[in-house]
Amino acid sequence: MSFRIIKALTVALAILMNLYAIQAFAEAKKILHIASYHDAYSWTHRIDIGIKKGLKRSFNNTPYEYKVFYMDTKRKNKPEQILSAAEEAEKIIKRWNPDIIITSDDNATKYVTSPLKDSGRKFVFTGVNNEPSIYNLPNKNVTGIIERFHAKDGIYLLKMLKPNCSKVVMLSDDSITGKLISEQLKFTIKEENFDLLGIHATGSFKEWKSLVKKYQGKADAFYVIVYFTMKDNDGKPVPGPEVLKWTRINSKIPEIGFWPFVTDHGGLASIGVDGVEQGYAASKIAVKILNGTSPADITTKVTSKSTLYINSKRARELNIIIPCELMESAFLIEK
């Protein structure tokens, strides 16, 4: 075979491969993740990790496109700001025309998925604390993953860390998540015969400080829910880590949370839903739908995996000895 023929065949093969690649890219499934919050928020970040992990495993070497839009409604949480973010999400949906949309957490589900549930587009929600029926979901185009925090695990964790604990206070910001979790947690606390001294949801950092000081010497523990919608006296957002940093410096009361950011920001301990698992489960459902399964044939699910985090430095500050059985099963944080 002459050199010219070999060269011609090589060029032809390269052209065919390029055409195949172009066609494959054009046919690649498009997945859009609309996140309620911002990328730096650890819960959102972990959900995104889970989605990416699930998509990579499911698609293997098959090409696909994945984009994320962050509504940022923790920091921009005024009603008009949330609606504006939802409108921007809808514009992205129309412009990019994804094959399926994953919405994470309640705001994206409430303000994007629910209004578009009958549009013919396919949705998978995840990280939803509220009952999906509140948002008129699921339906023929929508299914997903429900987030149920581990209330009783949080009670048992506190009992192990502080066996003589009896008086507790619930602290949260005034977000939808904070109010929902607080409402659910209070029943479990009462079932365990704890003395619930107060349930507080505030968007004022000044009031938060006042509450922390108020319960010094009175409460045995704080159940710290979320604290990311706090504002200072001028109405400017106060970063969540700053809220808990101040709390730690000015309090001798242990903090128990339900997401890893509580310990990451300096609190004593947290046990809660694994965000990676929530994202991974949502991605698996999304792939099923892309492969032809109707959302109506996929029941909503609750993930079961919980993860324990303990801040050993905070434990030393509070003179709390971490039991061996917790040491063996927890992620120990030294911050």
Question: Can you put this structure into words, describing what you see?
Answer:
This protein is α/β, with parallel strands linked by helices and 335 residues long. The protein folds into two domains: 25-148 and 275-304, Response regulator (Rossmann fold), CATH 3.40.50; 151-273 and 307-333, Rossmann fold, CATH 3.40.50.2300. 44% of the residues lie in helices and 20% in strands. The chain has twelve helices and 13 strands. The strands form two sheets. It has a seven-stranded mixed beta sheet with strand order 7-6-8-9-10-12-13. Helix 2 (42-59) links the parallel strand 1 (29-35) and strand 2 (64-70). Helix 2 packs parallel to helix 10 (275-290), helix 3 (79-96) packs across helix 4 and helix 7 (205-214) runs parallel beside helix 8 (240-250). The longest helix is centred in the N-terminal third of the chain and has 25 residues, at 3-27. The N and C termini lie far apart (70 Å). Residues 19-26 have low confidence and may be disordered.
